[in-house]
Amino acid sequence: MDDGGVADPGRGRGGEPGEDREDLIRVERAEKVFTVRKRTGFLRRERREVRAVDGLSFTVARGEVVGYIGPNGAGKSTTIKMLTGILTPSGGRLTVAGIDPSRERTRLARRIGVVFGQRTTLWWDLPLIDSYKLAHRMYRIPDARYRENLDRCVALLDLGALLDVPVRQLSLGQRMRGDIAAALLHDPEVLYLDEPTIGLDVVSKAKVRGFLRELNAERGTTVLLTTHDLTDIEQLCSRVMVIDHGRLMYDGPLTGLHEAGESERTLVVDLERELPPIDVPAPARVVRVDGVRQWIGFPASASAAGLVAAVAAAYPLVDLSVREPDIETVIARMYAERASA
Ligand SMILES: Nc1ncnc2c1ncn2[C@@H]1O[C@H](COP(=O)(O)OP(=O)(O)OP(=O)(O)O)[C@@H](O)[C@H]1O
Q1: What pTM, to 2 d.p., does this model score?
Q2: Measured from the CB, is residue 14 less than 6 Å from ligand 1?
């Protein structure tokens, strides 16, 4: 963890066992096919179909915080765009809070909030507060509610000194916090976040993550989070969905992802003296030696205790530690396995 945040994913209201589950987002065999025309010669164009989303099904319960991850071009943004009504699906069915997004986009807009990390919805030349005043009128937010939500966002996202600053003068981190506040003034039930921490420094990332945790815990806001920053997932999400080529490859808790990717943990031992690679019980094996330190890879699903006992019985140890696999490696393995299947 890079920012010292408290990792307590899953404390939102949707993930509690035994509670009645209300599916706020439903996606059933959704498809999105784009037709692209490519120039193949003078006056010649070839039509090609891109299946950006290919038979995707999942549900998200009210109050869940779900990470939505996958490599570039996997279909994440296309899914979010269909869920907001910006894009119409080519097939299948999507509903958000019982509303078909592409048919009733305006009605849905009152129930959802959207933050695209790479773009802003704020008015570039106007002071930040003016964008909020516009949202107040556009969404017809009752005055007391607007004031309460604004005060809360200003306090938690540290926006007090920025309200009168034109948006174009804000740093990326300040603007992102401003954008998140703008998406929440009308009390959306669902918040879509597309790369909310991209390009932010460690302090800004911590602020954004802390705010999102609090929003989910206190208001039960459902969050669908697209990110390449796996710390976002580790710190915020009780569940993660992995998509590739428009299809769902994994849907479950973060811990299960390690198993799906057949990841390895590493036992790092410091010996009393330099030795050639030590003997360890299979399937564990020494993967690296540097002076007195040796790195031993073993399956993440296996217990470290037996391995530690075997090594400690045969060799004089000065120190040892167990390193968890990082998710990036796990996901890369999943993709590699699929590609070679
Ligand atoms: N408007 C469009 N016209 C044609 N092809 C498109 C269009 N939008 C997306 N695509 C294609 O659909 C596929 C999925 O794209 P999408 O933007 O959903 O991926 P992504 O997972 O969000 O990727 P990234 O992490 O790079 O943002 C890609 O092959 C992309 O080139």
Answers
A1: 0.76
A2: no
